[in-house]
Amino acid sequence: MDFFTNQNILFYISAYLIGSIPFGLILAKFFAGVDVKAAGSGSIGATNVLRVVKETNPSLAKKLGAATVILDALKGTLVLLLAMSMGASDSTLWGIAVLSVLGHCYSIYLGLEGGKGVATGLGVYIALIPIPTIIGAVVWIICAKVLKISSLSSLLGLTAVIVVASFLNDGLNVGSNIPMYIIAFIIYYKHIPNIIRVIKGEEKKVV
């Protein structure tokens, strides 16, 4: 079978390439004229977009931060929904999910640099394990309101997703929870500097 006409291969390539699109970087440059990779934490995610743009335009910062979250989530969800509509297998769907998060975290357009993967992870999880993801999102929101530390709140929400999904799902219809754990591991790994700062009490709050 020809490599580039294999439906699964096309889905995998699309997932990675679309996942790699740095929406936060693009939005901040286009609408606010700032380079988020050269300011703040250097991340292309919504938190850094909010923090950097807020320095010059607080009202625009909230809009761009929200838009970044939505677009980063959708770039994982949309490929999955297309694959679902075309009858892709569960194993293919989880392959798409992993590659979408990898694309965001290690973008081919940014020399294999990227964001932390939280929003894109949320986008793929909501399509594949909706109930645990909704619970995790609630935990995320509550922790964000109380703790006001974006990274810690995100990781606590992610942990809630994994714990709930581990109890509710038996092998995710692919015989194993490993794809779900791989996505979580990528996100945890990208947050190692944040975790170290949290332990030291140096992680900045979002105010």
Keywords:
cell membrane, acyl-phosphate glycerol-3-phosphate acyltransferase activity, G3P_acylTferase_PlsY, 10 helices, 207 residues, globular, 71% helix, transmembrane
Short description:
It is an enzyme of class 2 (transferase). Helices cover 71% and strands 0% of the residues. It is mainly α and 207 residues long.
What do these coordinates show?
The protein is mainly alpha-helical. It has one domain. It is built from 10 helices and no strands. The model has no long low-confidence stretch (mean pLDDT 86).
Largest beta-sheet details: none
Number of helices: 10
Write down the overall mean pLDDT. 86
What share of residues is helical? over 70%
Catalytic activity: an acyl phosphate + sn-glycerol 3-phosphate = a 1-acyl-sn-glycero-3-phosphate + phosphate
GO biological process, one term: phospholipid biosynthetic process
Transmembrane segments: 9-32, 64-84, 91-110, 122-142, 149-168, 174-192
EC number: 2.3.1.275
Layout of strands and helices, then pairs:
Layout: H1 7-19, H2 23-32, H3 46-54, H4 58-85, H5 90-105, H6 118-128, H7 130-147, H8 150-168, H9 178-190, H10 192-200
Helix pairs in contact: 1-4, 1-5, 2-4, 3-4, 4-5, 4-6, 5-6, 5-9, 6-7, 7-8, 8-9
Pathway: Lipid metabolism; phospholipid metabolism
Main location: membrane
Subcellular location: Cell membrane
